[in-house]
Amino acid sequence: MDKKLWKIGFFTGLTSFVLMILGTRTILGTELVFKNYLAFGVFSLTVGIIAAVMLFYKMKIAYRIFMVALVLAFAEFFRSFLMNTDGFGDLVGVLSLFMISSFGFGVAVIVEFIVMIFKKMKEDNNA
What we know:
Elements: H1 2-27, H2 34-56, H3 60-83, H4 89-126
Helix pairs in contact: 1-2, 1-3, 3-4
């Protein structure tokens, strides 16, 4: 499994990078500059590293929760672009992507640590 971790992280990061470009350039029709690509790349790199690190430390529950949150974040990202035509759709979409994915990461880590604590307590009680 360890040899596949970088592939999973790379695929997750690449997918998020492509989805951000697709949403911003294609759906909004915004001309992207170097700083946009740089910001998208940093976010995608962070997402890919988080996914790979969660799997490296065998945090499977946290990984699944984070991936669900990331899918929901991108769904809200695209929904905001498509439904909010009053001029704030782009801002709301990008902010919701960042907030939902960050919230999902926080919830995922908290849930994983609670599960680890319960497993540790169970092992202590059985010993």
